[in-house]
Amino acid sequence: DSATSVAAVLAGGIGGVVRLTSGDAGTGVAADAITINGHLAWQASNGGLALQTRIKVDRITNAYIFVGFTDVATGVEAPVTLSGTTFTTNATDAAGFMFDTTATTDTWRLVGVANNVDATEQDLGVAPVADDYETLRVEFNVDGDALFFRNGAQVGTILSDAVTPTVDLCPIVYWSNLSGTTSILMDVDYIHVEMDRAADGRAAA
Question: With 90 as the cut, is the pLDDT of residue 188 above it?
Fold first, then answer.
């Protein structure tokens, strides 16, 4: 949608803050999604794979958010969605925090899919707060299991088989307006991604 904007650095954002604006067509993610993502250069099998970001959105109604890793680095694919009580995994491999207001209950979910096999999702029972920053972190062990943290505290339990360890993944911060003709603004304070690697840049042994 024409309202979807490229990243804009906020004037006066101490330390650097990027604002992205979703579309306002109101027809769903195909028109209104916007994302920050990296390249397919990350694998859980290396060890030490993690993503941490600090974000806030100005609206949590008619909204979709995903923060984590996925196996698609182009386009606007929502890795995992939730309509009512039905999950749809569009990615073959992905894991992260998901918030989808088409769900029966609008709360943060911990989700994963490994080679098209869905992990057992976890409902945190809390939602993001409009215009409040929160820090989200997801870590993976070498087996592709995931551990999640929100505002510095562990949430949920280990999500087993969250991703396939040897699949190339990209970090992603993704959100969208789902309906209505008002854009969603997301401010991204930082995105930190890390993974173990050998000194010569190859995958860790």
Answer: yes
